[in-house]
Amino acid sequence: MAKINGNEIKPGNVIEHQGSVWRAVKTNSVKPGKGGAFNQVELRNLINGSKLNERFRSSETVEKIRLEQKDYQYLYDAGEAHAFMDQETFEQIEIQKDFIGEQEAFLQSEMVVVIEFYEDKPIGISLPDQVILTIEETEPVVKGQTAANSFKPATCENGIRVMVPPFVGQGERIVVQTEDSTYLRRAD
């Protein structure tokens, strides 16, 4: 672990604060007219998911934590959990569905994900930035709806709703960004 000044905290940093492990979600450097500058940081607890807004002055120091990251292959749905296999040791672990959250819909057989560990306990999961999905249902093209910025709703094989351009039809494969469920392009 390394100590860093409060004004050096950046989004994505994992720190130890108030006896727990937190990830910086947003940071904002504030330089008021009176008084010293500070860093306004929105933190999310990696153990229980709670949020906290905290001010850190440049004179304060916090412990920056390095998480162990390992590649795991998604295997199958195990009821209330999902099973993953370590790519190096072939050990299997199960992670609760509510821990994965909304990203669960993007899990695909044999997909490689990155699981973050703190003291041998999983505290984070990162899916690939993009996945390829097949469109199961979409509205037909409306004549005259060819404006460059017009989109129509489509439902993908995993149940996710995505806004797609009018030329994309049912049964086509598309590339979707997992972070915000947005259409990127047609799949090759």
TrEMBL record:
Domain Elongation factor P C-terminal residue range list? 131-186
Which keywords does this Swiss-Prot/TrEMBL entry list?
A: Cytoplasm, Elongation factor, Protein biosynthesis
Among Pfam families, the record links this protein to: EFP, EFP_N, Elong-fact-P_C
Name the InterPro entries for this protein: Elong-fact-P_C, NA-bd_OB-fold, Rib_uL2_dom2, Transl_elong_fac_P/YeiP, Transl_elong_KOW-like, Transl_elong_P/YeiP_cen, Transl_elong_P/YeiP_CS, Transl_elongation_fac_P
- The UniProt record lists the Translation elongation factor P/YeiP central domain at 69-123
Q: What HAMAP family does its record include?
A: EF_P
Q: Which family does it belong to?
A: Belongs to the elongation factor P family.
- Name the chain's protein: Elongation factor P
